[in-house]
Write a structure and sequence with these properties.
Layout (H helix, E strand, L loop, with lengths): L1 H23 L10 E3 L8 E5 L1 H13 L3 E5 L2 E5 L2 E2 L4 E5 L3 E5 L24 E6 L2 E7 L2 E3 L14 E6 L2 E6 L2 E3 L6 E4 L2 E6 L2 E4 L8 E4 L2 E6 L2 E4 L4 E4 L6 E7 L2 E11 L7 E7 L2 E11 L6
Parallel strand pairs: 1-3, 2-4, 3-6, 4-7, 5-8, 6-9, 7-10, 8-11, 9-12, 10-13, 11-14, 12-15, 13-16, 14-17, 15-18, 16-19, 17-20, 18-21, 19-22, 20-22, 21-23, 22-24
Length: about 290
């Protein structure tokens, strides 16, 4: 009841903002550079109030205006699933922490339109995008999945970040920690750029770092990953191959495989280059498994 009351208050706040904007002819939520601050949409950043509605409202407004940057300022933002949309950069300023809710009901089920073997896994995520173009998550802030709070098999442990059938995806400089399942999953994406990302996730089962799945034209560089499961995994869980992938200048540590290719894969691998990576405290440096038919 308390959560419903808080959500209603935030919704009324959004309505008041829209009425004021219509009456005055002023759109006060974005600055001249197209930056939308989530605090202007009702996000409180107190670490206890669920800020999903406020942050999502900023993303929706930014997308509706043709794109720009959604700024998450310093503070702790408790949130459930956020849906990233075309043209939007979600920027976490230094001192900003997106904290994943520990209530599974705050992560609506999202069955991806692209069929793959991962249909057998969870259909929930903290940050989700599908069929989006030119999107990014950036900044010196932190995304904390609070993964230790989740128990059970795949279906009840959300991904932290999941991108499906997206084109032009950038993930840069952010720190990701303690995911309930895989940390980042790129499925059937094209033109993916990952640079300077720090991952610390050893709190649950299946704590992969980066899962690059049936995706093409992918560049990963200068990342620092310490994971409970495989640090960087290339998969092709559909008939679409994983191809044109470059991984370089990364530091990887894991309880399992530092770099792995082939698990649950059908489509194969083409044009993969891995260079100049430091691997330490790992059970295996690399592992390549045969493609599997499902």
């Amino acid at each position: 009841l308390k959560r419903k009351t808080i959500t209603m208050k935030i919704s009324l706040w959004h309505l008041l903002l829209m009425i004021l904007s219509c009456c005055t002819g002023i759109v006060a939520c974005a600055d001249s550079a197209g930056v939308y601050d989530v605090s202007a949409f009702g996000a409180l950043a107190d670490g206890t109030t669920l800020d999903t509605a406020g942050i999502q409202a900023a993303i929706d407004a930014c997308h509706g205006a043709g794109g720009g940057t959604v700024r998450v300022g310093s503070g702790r933002y408790l949130t459930g699933t956020l849906t990233l949309k075309s043209g939007v950069t979600l920027h976490l300023a230094r001192g900003a922490v997106l904290v994943g809710s520990t209530n599974l009901d705050d992560y609506p089920k999202r069955r991806a339109g692209f069929r793959s073997y991962t249909d057998n896994y969870t259909d929930r995520a903290l940050i989700y995008a599908e069929d989006a173009r030119d999107i990014a998550v950036s900044g010196e802030g932190v995304i904390d999945g609070q993964g230790a709070a989740f128990s059970g098999e795949y279906l009840v442990r959300p991904y932290m970040l999941r991108f499906v059938s997206c084109e032009g995806v950038s993930l840069e400089d952010v720190a990701l920690r303690d995911g309930p399942m895989w940390t980042v999953h790129f499925l059937a994406c094209d033109r993916v750029y990952v640079r300077g990302v720090t991952i610390r996730s050893r709190c649950n089962k299946n704590n992969d770092g980066l899962d690059i799945d049936s995706s093409s034209n992918v560049r990963v560089s200068d990342c620092d990953i310490s994971s409970g499961d495989d640090a960087i995994v290339l998969k092709s869980t559909s008939a679409r191959p994983c191809r044109n992938v470059t991984i370089t200048n990364c530091v990887l540590s894991t309880d399992c495989n530092a770099i792995k290719m082939g698990t649950e894969s059908n489509g194969g691998f083409q044009n993969i280059a891995i260079s100049n990576c430091v691997l330490y405290d790992t059970r295996r440096w690399h592992r390549i498994t045969r493609a599997q038919k499902h």
